[in-house]
Design a protein that fits this description.
globular; 2 domains; four-stranded antiparallel sheet; Nuclear Transport Factor 2, Chain: A; 11 strands; isomerase activity; periplasm; alpha+beta; about 35% helix; disulfide bond; about 250 residues
Length: about 250
Amino acid sequence: MRRSGLLLALAAGTMAAPVHAGPAEEARIRASLQQAVPQAKVQAVRETPMPGVYEVELPTGMVYASADGRFVIQGELLQLDGKQVTNLTEKASASKRVAVMKTIKRQDEIVFPARGKAKAVLTVFTDIDCGYCRKLHQEVPELNRLGVEVRYLAYPRDLPRAGATGGTGGRMGQIWCNANREQALTLAKQGKSFPAARKNCTAPIAEQFALGQRMGVTGTPAVFNEQGEQLGGYMPAAKLAQALGLN
């Protein structure tokens, strides 16, 4: 999975803390969305720096609405300030992702630690059958050498169709239940067989897939830094290190 070059080049920028919408505007926006999409679960409605446009937080991400709730925009909101471009959608999403990431249990991740003291941490949602996931995994030794710890979570893309115990999800469950998960994951991404899994083990594949959806994952690999910012999909180790500020 690749992201737009423009978005990867955006400066971090600064943004004032979001302000909740007034009660009248929030009520109109909620009522309009509920009528049009009854299953929509609005979690919050906030003002944006753009006059008359409100950020609407949904479980799957952000949309934007007019004050009267008659117009909804899907996409990313960018703020221009001279030469500085701030992706307001990504900033709001990053804050939400940090809270989600804090719920992850370390023992549920497959971790490839940095050599020496870690300078940065990447959380990666992966699928063992994804070509770019396999390509990214080849960069892990160099990332570790550069001081980057890589933490893997399972995101089998065929799970909605095959379930957590069938298809790719089933094989990833075998990896997560392996005595040497790091080795098993590496072998699987090389297209090789790996040792049998431990018995009486339940892998958190479905839970991690759901976690990825809450993080806004739509493809793999999905790479996040500790600040909850999605760095994109596959990138060589040197470019990832640069994106992490490790020059």
